[in-house]
Amino acid sequence: MRAASVSANSTRAAVRTYSIDELKREGERAGREAFLSRHTYPFLVLDAMGGGEEDAEVFATLGGRKTPVKPVIREGSPPNPRARAAAVEKRKGANSFDNMITLGRAGNNDIALEVSSVSKFHAYFTKDAADGHWSIHDAGSSNGTWVDGERLAASHGRAKLRDGAIVQLGPDTRGRFFLPKALFELLVPPSPPAKT
Question: pTM here?
Answer without folding.
Answer: 0.79
